[in-house]
Amino acid sequence: MLTWSLRGRMMLMLCAVVGILLVSCSVGLYVLLSRQVYSQLDQRLQDAAQPVIADLLTDSLTEKDVDQLNLPGEYFELLDSSGHVLQRSHNLQIGAFHLAPSTFRGHQTSFQTIDYAREGRLRIAAVPFQFGNKSFVLAVAVSTEEADHILASFRGIIFLIVPFILLLTASVSAWYVGKMLAPIATFTRHAESMAEHASGLYQANLWRPLPVNSSRDELSRLAVTFNQLFERVASAVGQSRQFVSDAAHELRTPLAVLRGETELLLLEPRTPQQYEESLRVIDGELKHLSKIVEGLFTLAMADAGQLRLANEPVYLNEILEGTCVLLTPIAGLKHIAINRNLSRDFPYVGDETFLRQLFVIFLENAIKFSPPSTTVQIELEQSNGTVQARFRDRGVGIAPEHLAHIFKRFYRAASSGSSDARVEAAPSGGLGLAIAHAITSAMGGWIECQSSPDSGSTFTVNLPPLR
Q1: pLDDT at position 333, please?
Q2: What is the pLDDT of residues 270-284, one digit of tens each?
Q3: How far apart are CA 459 and CA 426, in angstroms?
Q4: Tell me: domain 312-463, CATH 3.30.565.10, correct?
Q5: DSSP state, residue 467
Q6: What is the pLDDT of residue 377?
Q7: Which of 131, 121, 159 shows the shortest CA–CA distance to 41?
Q8: pLDDT in tens, 230-241
């Protein structure tokens, strides 16, 4: 089956439309011209008949005035009401016109065209008139040669111009369609190149935006859309590769510890105390692995838009108080005090499990990166219907250049405060803040962070107002 390219189909459609319009206009013009030419010819016949009829009415019909007529290119016949020829002009020597019978039944001038011997095609006007109580018809004829010549010349012009215009249309459309489709061909080549190097799109030397003209037409908007798509694909591929690399790095350490401890346990018999110590190490690493796997699952569900959140009445102050109680022992190991005033009720409708996980992430983060013997401040307030849960620590802080990246998965940045300190934007296996961001976004809220090196950090969770 023959398939046409888009360029070929557009050219064919354009030529077909132009051709139909040309033929329709040409036929219409030809019909109008034909009517006009024959209308003028008919008027000429009537003008020629009037003086002859006037002369016949003045003189007696027996004087044979019509027989004496010999006008160049004009022919006359006088007929009675039954169609018998009474007189015939001198220049008309061959037979009668053989007019249609209907000519003698009406009282209006009628016109017809006949083929008549050597004179060729004749245009005849049959003009009825009364003489006394009798009816007569004066038939006036002229050759249609001049009118036919005009119409034939017009037909020749049409047959010459229409193919020329169609050829010109095809040439212009080929150039114009090619020019219009050139950006699409560029898009196609660019997309093919991007597809061939899909695994390396995140590399700067492979990402090239499409040119966008200033006309802001449909192709320009398409180019902008393609650029946005390519940029997001490149970013997604880069993030995926970085994510896999970081996840592998995070999993490598606990797996190596588990493997080492297991090999030591199997190498030779050990005392119960040694077995207990090894199992504690294995248990800790397994918990760490569980955090990473659960975090990855939560993020995968959030990315797929399948993070199911329950809508149940809860009290945020109670959930936050329970979080503080849960992490107080961990804070006590570093002599960190958790200051909060949560006596006021904050009713809300949301998912208690995810809200608790959200608060645990920020409180655990504040405790983990706060120096010993400091204080973590927790506040819960409402502003313009939005509930704000604020976590303030006195830790090492986050440098300004890293604030835009702290919600990325497995993101870690060295602190500017000391050479050996670390600012880990995501505890809980390197996914904490990424999970918090996903949960908050799924709830329709957002997170704000204010931090500077050696001055601590303040994370504010903004939950949307109740509907």
Answers
A1: 92
A2: 888 888 888 888 888
A3: 13
A4: yes
A5: -
A6: 93
A7: 121
A8: 777 776 776 677
Closest to 228 in 3D by CA, of 220, 215, 299:
220
* Residue listed under structure tokens 């207990």: 276
Alpha-carbon gap, residue 290 to 183, rounded angstroms: 51
Q: Which helix (H) or strand (E) holds 110?
A: strand 110-116
Domain 218-303 CATH (choose: 3.20.20.70, 1.10.287.130, 1.10.10.10, 1.20.120.230): 1.10.287.130
433: Cβ–Cβ under 8 A, 6 or more apart, which residues?
361, 365, 406, 407, 411, 425, 426
Q: What is the pLDDT of residue 190?
A: 74
Q: What are phi and psi of 115, to 5 degrees?
A: -95, 125
Token couple for 259: 């493997």
**Could you tell me the two tokens for 122?**
């004749």
Among residues 362, 252, 350, 247, the alpha carbon closest in space to that of 300 is found at 247
pLDDT score at 181: 78
Pairwise pLDDT comparison (122 vs 94), residue with the higher score: 122
CATH number for the domain whose boundaries are 6-149: 3.30.450.20
Instruction: Write down the pLDDT at residue 325.
Output: 92
What pLDDT is stored for residue 462 in this prediction?
93
The amino acid at 212 = V
Pairing mode of beta strands 337-340, 375-383: parallel
Among the ranges given (1-5, 143-147, 341-345), the one the predictor scored with the smallest mean pLDDT:
1-5
pLDDT of 160 over the 50 cut: yes
| Cβ count near 148 (within 10 Å) | 16
**Closest by alpha carbon to 91, among 67, 114, 113?**
67
Strand ranges (DSSP E) for 36-81?
Answer: 74-80
d(CA 399, CA 454): 9
Contacts of 386 (CB under 8 A, 6+ apart): 445, 462, 463, 464, 465
Burial of 396 (0-12, 13-18, 19+ CB in 10 A): buried
Residue 441: both structure tokens together: 């976004």
* Segment 402-420, tens digit of pLDDT: 888 888 777 665 444 443 3
| Nearest 10 degrees: Cα torsion 5, 10, 13, 16 | -100
| Rounded CA Rg of the chain | 50
Q: Quick one: what percent of the chain has pLDDT higher than 90? A: 23
Domain range annotation of the chain:
6-149, 218-303, 312-463
Chain centroid to CA 219: 10
Cβ count within 10 A of residue 28:
10
Cβ(387)–Cβ(463) below 8 Å: yes
Q: What is the DSSP string of 229-279?
A: HHHHHHHHHHHHHHHHHHHHHHHHHHHHHHHHHHHHHHHS---HHHHHHHH
Amino acid identity of residue 19, one-letter, is G
